[in-house]
Amino acid sequence: MVSAVGRIGPNKDNQTRWRTVPRKWFPQCAESESGVMNLRSAIRHLVPRPLRIELLRLKRLPAWFIETPTIARTRATPSEISGFGTLMASHRSPLQRTPGEVSAALQRSKEQNVAIAARNLDRLIVRPFEIFSYHRTVGRPSRLRGFRSGLELHDGKLSRGVGGGCCQVSNMLYLLALRSGMKITERFRHGADLFPDHGRTVPFGCGATIFYNYADLRFENPLPQPIVLRLRLEDQHLVGEFWTDANPGWTAEIYEAGHNRSRDRGVWIRENWIRRRFVRSDGSVLLDQEVAHNRARILYAMPDDQIESSMDPAAEQEEAESCSAPL
User: Which of 4, 15, 111, 134 is the most exposed place for a label (fewest CB within 10 A)?
Assistant: First the structure.
């Protein structure tokens, strides 16, 4: 899906048409309605998952070399930091949402992974028209670099993986980028709603999933001045801030519309639309745009009395939950 702020979401509406092969060739794989198995399922059955992942990673490397001059890579020195005196956006998120949701060992691993990622991102300068890339900045998570095995989501199922838990960092970066007026050029939405809301302060779907290196979070700085990223861990919270050197003259509000939970063929689905509104200092609206459409499968128990009817985004817009950038 493409919008005014770039590509939004990995779940394409136009699915690739795969050739099919007879099911008898691979009896262990699922059969389609037409009695044949699609080629993608055959490949997934024959090629081990680690090898498939590495092939996908190799596929993106040539583009990495070509785009290197456009990627933000400069870090601000301590003396340069003082020149960025205007706060564009800030947010705090707890490292542990609900005590007991995950084991203590996985929680400690997540906190270490988040700390490493935040350290690699802190003080990064994104100049006008430069592109921020999460993976080009943080790098590949590995045990040699200090990353641990944390909680990840694969094919709608919870599992462990080195660097697991870093989605909390990419989630925060996506929200801050929206609040700072950045142009999102690549973002993959979460396909599952893992846990019930607990102290939620931003609309559902204001996040971005990542997986090195083919599921990235990227944004371009369209402003005439640079921004600097500040990330740190403080009092069991991840704290993120975007600063710049001049007030742009507007604030950005992020709000949701059309939020609903419903059943789709026996599966609970959560859906909403994320919108961004630019407001001038005199209160007039400069721009109001849709930036994302989220649709995720709910993985936790959902009682029948919490069904919410679907609403048209425009009809619910005035009643939508709003989150304003602190300028």
Answer: 15
Q: Specify the amino acid at residue 8.
A: I
The model's pLDDT over 222-258, given as tens digits with 9 standing for 90+, comes to: 999 999 999 999 999 999 999 999 999 999 999 999 9
Angle at 310 between CA 305 and CA 313, to 5 degrees: 140
Number of H helices and number of E strands within the chain?
A: 7, 18
Q: Is 231 helix (H, G, I), strand (E, B) or coil?
A: strand
Q: What pairing do the DSSP bridges indicate for beta strands 227-234 and 218-220?
A: unpaired
How far, in Å, CA of 109 to CA of 96, rounded? 12
State the alpha helices, DSSP H only, in the chain: 39-46, 49-67, 78-81, 104-121, 134-138, 167-179, 313-316
In terms of Cβ atoms closer than 10 Å to its own Cβ (0-12, 13-18, 19+), residue 122 is middle
Q: Which of 120, 212, 119, 210 has its CA nearest to residue 168?
A: 210
